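pasting for the record
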Amino acid sequence: MTLARITARQFTLGLLLSVWVFSGLIGASAFAQQPPTADPVGVNLAPVIIDGKKLLRVRGLSSYPATRRASEVRQRIIDLANDQSFDPALLIVSNEDPARSIVMAGDLEVLNVFDEDAELENVQRELLAVVYRDVIADAILQYRTDRSVNRLINNSLLALTATVVFVFLLWAISRLFRWLVNWTERDVRRSVQDLATRTFHLLHPGQLWALVAGLLRLLRLVAYLAVVYFYLNAVLGLYPWTRPAARMLFRFVIDPLESLWLGFVAALPNLIFLVVLWIVTSYLLKFLRALFQSIERGRIRLESFEAEWAMPTYKIARILVIAFAIVVAYPYIPGSDSLAFKGVTVFVGILLSLGSSSLIANLLAGLSMTYRGAFRVGDRVKVGETVGLVEELKVMTTRVRTPKNEIVIIPNSNILNTDVVNYSHLAKTEGLLLHTSVSIGYDTPWRQVEAMLIQAAGRTERLNKEPPPFVLQTSMGDFSVEYQINAYCSDVSNLLQTYSNLHAHIQDVFNEYGVQIMSPAYIADPETAKLVPPELWHKDPAPKPE
């Protein structure tokens, strides 16, 4: 069976096994390397490192720098390791000098252990010297073993195996992502097209597919880099001459991860507090929402507190609770004391200060309107030049639907600073008084005019019969008298249509009685009366009466 015919299951199994084997090679090289321990602040220290492995650390003395001391100790150990006639078991510790302990190799002083070294490690000097002797003996044996022919042959075989696994993984990653591209091209792209159709082409299908393809290419690159990293770390760690490079490569990745982990552990108490604060805040908001919903629905009644105030008050309370939670949480946010976080905070503060004037004005206006009760949702109002039905009241804006089916968004600060006419406030209880005017000549008796106007109002739908309509004579001109018909209306949902019907009935009634309407301005008597005879009242295309 060729590689090209490997089934998906076999391919996946082989990939997992390869990763497992490769991980073993990595562990053999990486975890054998001891990471350096943290040095005390202000102490001159230097590690003794052989083949990338730290054996011990020495302290600098008054006229003996730590780096020089570590270099000399390292060279003595290497010289002893290269001397095949020397037996590491012959290393001894001499304590004859009261000021120091000496690790001896015959007559050669390999390492001097001073009281300062023992103080640094917090152990007795003699005991520390014995420990260092054993460490040096093991280092000599390891140095010789790593450079033995058998070990080099075994490591070369491991390197060859790692290389084979490396090549296989590169091939497998290439085949895997090629299959993923083909699968997404065949099966997923159709869904992307459907998604684009359902979302009204907010994002073109080609753009969505380019995003998916780019993500796959990025994942493939990351996979390649990971395989290369682990391969180099494993192979370089097999040989003593390249082990320092492997250790450096290993620490290049591990050190940032270690820093992140230590930072996470240090921030864990603060994170727990933030989680608890978030839970408490969430439940408090849920409680407030349930409370104000009960007030809105009438389940809970509070004296001097209107039901329609409930949800606006809840929105205000929610903002205050969230703001308080943010203030409490700020010191516990990881990195809140950093310069970058402070810079972002200052930037956000500047943005808020630039836009806060209108924001706060609209907010305060919304609060004032809520508790002032100028109008409610469903009321017919006039705000400035805008007339319509109130559809939505928000903290910042009010939405009004005009008779022309236009939606007008009005900032609450504008409403607070202008006159508001509410047509619906008293309409249902007392009725809204509608009125219109006509000018009639002095040759028509005023009693007849008033009777005709009242008759026209009585024919008009949506106008109340009680209280009855009435007429006022508002002015007397040179040639005419201005009459004003007034009628009560409880249904203000369509005032334009009501006015239109009233005007139509006025024309019909005046035509029926042969009275000429001289509105809007009566400046002279016409030679002949401008009347419409009854036979022409329903001239085409006007419909015939039933």
